[in-house]
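Lecture notes, unit on protein representations.

Consider one protein chain, 143 amino acids long.
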Amino acid sequence: MRIGALSRRTGVSVRLLRYYEEQGLISPRRRPSGYREYREEDVHVVRNIRTLLAAGLGTAAIAELLPCMEHHEGEDLAAACSGTLAGLHRERERITRAVDELLTARSALDRVITTTPKAVIEDPGLCLAEGPAPADRPETRTN
């Protein structure tokens, strides 16, 4: 099948399919005319790529892990060997660290919000930070 058909079957844009090819995630055959030719198996590979992307993995990690993943009809994607499982755990730990950092950032923002003076809350148009413009701005220069 050609790239347009793969795009329609998977819901992935042609541009993204070309990107997946550049990243080594899919490898279509080339016809003598230069057109890409995809196999039925590529439909499943692209869906597996989308599953791993949705799980937070980047394309480099997917390229490393995807060859050792298996997917059976009606079942979720699964690791086919313990080495792949270790890679998945490594990615999960990376995501956990990122979530922890985001939660810390949210807590800091919550503290800023909760310590906001009542006058600002009652008058959303009020900005206590507004004051004289810095001396280097053109509108305040006196020449």
